[in-house]
Amino acid sequence: MPKLAILTGGGDAPGLNAVIRAVVRSAILTYGWEPWGVRDGYEGFLRPDGIFRLTLDHVRGILPLGGTILGAANRGNPFARKVVRNGKTVIEDVSGEVIERFHREGFEALVVAGGDGTLGIARDLFRRGVPVVGVPKTIDNDVFGTDATFGFDTAIDFAARALDRLHNTAESHHRVMVVELMGRHAGFIALYAGIAGGADIILIPEIPFRFEVLCRKVRQRISHGRKFSIVAVAEGARPVGGHEIYYRPGEEGLIVPRLGGIGQIVGRYIEEECGAETRVTVLGHLQRGGSPSAFDRWLATTLAGEAMRLVVQGKFGRVAVLRRMRVTSITLDEALAEPKRVDPNCDAVRTAREIGICFGDEIGKDEPCNI
Ligand code: F6P
Q1: Is the CB of 137 under 6 A from ligand 1?
Q2: Strand partners, 251
Q3: CATH of the domain at 30
Q4: Residue 340's closest CA among 193, 121, 188?
Q5: Catalytic positions, please?
Q6: What total of structural domains would you count in the chain?
Q7: How far is the CA of 6 from the centre of ligand 1 (A)?
Q8: Is the CB of 139 inside a 6 Å radius of any atom of ligand 1?
Q9: Cβ pair 316, 131 in contact under 8 A
């Protein structure tokens, strides 16, 4: 029986277990391949106990589970691995060890579920002769070439319901509620959850905002009788001429910068400059956990099915993608050619503006109410 390895890299996302389950089930039940799991992303290839045989028992009951039964690591790039040598932290290329282990174990294919970081490593391994296929994953939805990545739907559903809850308390206390949402350098989560959760202001990296416009919007709402406002802020949002806010700055190759803090800055500004009592909530990793939505289970399963077909057909160096609700595949190079970002002129932004949502660049429409 040919052997295949599967790993889940980068930050976890709801739906990873559905991918593992679909790969294991179709490999065993349909294609006669022997599936093996790699623990903690590419790291598993570097550890003696990092690889184990997967059976149907391993994947029984995991479809509704968040996280990943294989473990994930979003700092485990074998081409630039952080290691301590003589008491000093240095970066080393250990990709040769990964490739050597892959071949020594007798694997004929590697299925990688990951975002652009993990898929970038997959592409580099493919260039060095590893037969790999990818499945795009991330709550951020920022992988180019696919209409959606699994994990995104679950994340926006959670975020939208959080906005619903904040609405209740914002209205009771006549407050401005600022919610900071994940998404890295893309605003998909804030845009979609903001629309679904009825936000009054949505700030995304793709549309730099002006602080004074936020105040005008909040004041416009107050003067029209709406004494509360909901502001959805993407963690990568930035003011015109400004830059992204990092909770912890990075260090070339050693420390990955961590976004965070723009919500507090926006909240403080609104409270101090607009005179509106304001509270800030950071949803953080709550957006990454939990049981995947039905859509994400479907998407993860269907993409994994396409990945397995690529494996058995020997079509490596490709990624399964969703296009107009159908699965197909593109090359890793195509998927990584450019980052996917919100188009500021897309239908969602246009409609949001038309229904009065402010993006911080212009105040937007509103109608006085009688309350
Ligand atoms: O890429 C997914 C994501 O959740 C981003 O939205 C966020 O910026 C980042 O990962 C957080 O990473 P970590 O889990 O390392 O804090």
Answers
A1: no
A2: 255
A3: 3.40.50.450
A4: 188
A5: 140
A6: 2
A7: 22
A8: yes
A9: yes
